[in-house]
Amino acid sequence: MRILVTNDDGISAPGLAVLEQIATELAGPKGEVWIVAPAFEQSGVGHCISYTHPSILSELGPRRFAAEGSPADCVLAALHVVMKDTPPDLILSGVNRGNNSAENALYSGTLGGAMEGALQGVPAMALSQYYGSGNRDLENPFEAARAHGAEVVRKLLSATPQNDSPYRLFYNINFPPVAAGAVKGIKVTTQGCRSGKRFSAEEQFSPNGKRFIWVKGGDQQVSTAPETDAAANLDGFISVTPMRADLTAHDAVEALKAIE
User: For the whole model, what pTM was predicted?
Assistant: First the structure.
């Protein structure tokens, strides 16, 4: 396989090195791993693209590039510039430092990279490593993702369902906040919601009186409903959530017909 790797934590992030190892294992001795990742951290940028200004693209080594843009920009740069003559068979985005379960998925640049790959017609998966008391102090907090990542991707590649939608499936994979040996298995889940634990903002003032706003996340150790992603992760399971870039609330369409 020819695999494209990107992320939102930046080209120097330790999680990207973990994903490069996973991709190398998947690609095999005759495959290729290409990296096109943000030059700087892009956490929380979601699926944004830099269409109002150009981005600098730098070649750092063989099949290794950094773009001054978002993860979605990196995927576009890879597919239409860097790899235009040798397109990838698979796009992997991550491994994110922290979970992208529940509402985090809506903000995630890691998912933004995978989503752009799916919109471009390429199989794509986002991989994230949940942090918690079970792995935060490990020598390698990513060890669950490193140990089980290739296996999960292989299983998904062999089990991908038929896609009858114009919006291609992509996958949100979250590894639990435990050591590799404590992972209980894989659960296919839906996206959860941490009720009442939304992002918020806090103001602070600098010594010269300037006003600043810091965005704050909610408690990540709060579980979600049964059979959803964060609930599975906090119970020691790898969650796999199939997703599409279709934001339509299909369950509401019929009821809203009354306003026509």
Answer: 0.96
Distances (CA, A) of 99 to 27, 76, 127, 202: 25, 24, 9, 22
Phi and psi at residue 195, to the nearest 5°: -55, 125
- Per DSSP (E only), the strands in the chain are 2-6, 32-38, 57-61, 64-67, 90-97, 124-129, 170-175, 185-188, 200-205, 211-216, 237-243
* Phi, psi (degrees; rounded to nearest 5) at 222: -85, 130
| CB contact at 8 A, 129 and 163 | no
pLDDT in tens, 134-153: 999 999 999 999 999 999 99
pLDDT beneath 70: ranges in the chain: 162
Q: How many CB atoms lie within 10 A of CB 96?
A: 29
Place of tokens 């040996």: 181
What are the percentages of helix, strand and coil residues in the chain, rounded to 5?
30, 25, 45
